[in-house]
Amino acid sequence: MAKAYPLLLAIVLGGVLTGGPAAAAPSGVPSLPDAVTAALLSHTPTTLAATARSRTQVTVQRRAGSGWAFGSAVLTAPAQPDAYPLGWLFLAHREAGGWRVELEGDRGFADLAGGAAVLSPAEREVFTTPSRVEYAGGDFRTG
What we know:
Number of strands: 4
Shape: flat
C-alpha cells in the first residue's frame, strides 16, 4: 500500500504540472505546440536555425473549446552577446488537416482573427484593423 502513494502522487502531479490530460492528436497530425513551433521556426533567421527548435517556448493564454487557441510564441535568445529573443502572438484554429497557425504580422492573422471565438470583440477589432504608420506632422523625411 505504501508503494502506491508515490505512483499516485506522480500521476496527480503529472496532470497538474502539464495542465491536465492532453487530447490525443490523430496520427501524423501535429499537436498545437508543434504546429506553433513550426510557424515560429518559419520566421527564424537562418543564422539562428541550427539551435532554434530547442529554444522555442509556446504559451497558450486562452482556448475556446477544442478548436481555437491564442497565445505567444517565443524563440529565446542564444547565450551570446547582443542576442535577443524573438516573439509573436499567435492564433490557431483546428481544421480538418490539423492546426492552422497564424503569427501576428502574417497576412492570415487578421483573417483568422475576424472569426476567432477565442478573442473578445475589442480584440477582434484591434487585430483586424489594418495598421498604418503615422508620422509626426505628416513629415516622412528621415534626415
